[in-house]
Amino acid sequence: MIKRCQNEECGKSFTPARRDAKFCSDRCRGQANARRVREAAAPSPAVNVSALAASDARLEAIEARLESAARMMETRLDALERAVKATQTETSQALKAATEEQGRARDTAHKSVRDLGRRLDGLETTVTEMKASRGAMREQRQINERLTALETRLNEVVVAVNTQHGLIQQLDTLVGDLVDPPDEPKKRKR
Ligand SMILES: [Zn+2]
Questions:
Q1: Fewer CB within 10 Å: N-end or C-end of the chain?
Q2: pLDDT tens digits, residue range 8-19?
Q3: Top mean-pLDDT range of 35-39, 52-56, 137-141
């Protein structure tokens, strides 16, 4: 019986001494086994590069959403400041009484905006820390778990920011109406 040597670098035909022999010689068996060990130990570099690129893309997406949430917060704070200034410029007693309720709502909104700002700052710090420590993190799984946790927290904050946006817009409209009432009082919102 003639077989072909399974060592890729040899491939010679040989007559095996045993039925299950795969290689023509001990030397060829050694070479083939060494090659198999080498190939199993070295991970494909393409896989690592694409996994790293994927985590980069997720971090960039998180940063972009953080930036847009921060911009929304700024817009909201501007609206809040306008509302505060509008009530401060008014001195009439009747208007003071009418704006008391709005004043309380405004204080609550202001505190809530500050809390959201702190949560956004916390997320920004986490992203920065993660970028710094990513090289030290050995497992892609670990990086992905932290990215997912970060995305979950960001989603919570964005929902809270959006809720706050509606409240502050209502407040802005209410204070605006008090300071500069619409022409037809009947159409005024309560
Ligand atoms: Zn051989």
A1: C
A2: 889 899 998 888
A3: 35-39
* pTM reported for the whole predicted model: 0.50
Q: What count of other Cβ atoms lies within 10 Å of the Cβ of residue 102?
A: 19
Domain spans of the chain?
A: 57-187
CA of 44 to the centre of ligand 1 (A): 28
Beta partners for residue 14, in sequence order: 3
Nearest CA to 91 out of 81, 99, 80 is that of 99
Expressed in angstroms and rounded, the spacing between residue 1 Cα and the centre of ligand 1 is 16
As given in the structure block, the two tokens for residue 163 are: 């809720």
Find the 16 Cα to ligand 1 centroid distance in Å: 11
Question: Distance between CA 82 and CA 80 in Å, rounded?
Answer: 5
Q: How far does the centroid of ligand 1 lie from the alpha carbon of residue 36, in Å?
A: 15
